[in-house]
Amino acid sequence: xxxxxxxxxxxxxxxxxxxxxxxxxxxxxxxxxxxxxxxxxxxxxxxxxxxxxxxxxxxxxxxxxxxxxxxxxxxxxxxxxxxxxxxxxxxxxxxxxxxxxxxxxxxxxxxxxxxxxxxxxxxxxxxxxxxxxxxxxxxxxxxxxxxxxxxxxxx
Length: 155
Prior knowledge:
By secondary structure, the protein is an all-alpha fold. It has helices at 16-41, 43-83, 86-113, 116-131, 133-154.
């Protein structure tokens, strides 16, 4: 801020205008420093920013893990299906069809004897099952195949 006057007659003293410019520049630097310190001490804002960042990380990680689990489940289902002998798969398909037929028959009997509110709930459940029919059958088929394989290995 002040000039070095160790050498007499070397440089002239700064003019009042130069001093004003130096003071103004120093004030601006000081203001920026104060704002930076104030931002660092604003705990509430920093906590909110950190919370948002953590939420985004958790969401990304959850999506990644969900995708990995779905991929692994699909791979496992294919692996079980590939390793299952054709006769076992045929038996599983036949058993699945038989169970489906019996379930439909029992469903009709229960529907005929059920009160109206129960029928409405059952219709909603049936619609939900039909919307997800392929995954349900795939899971049932894989489960039956797995059970038949375990049974075959015991005997």
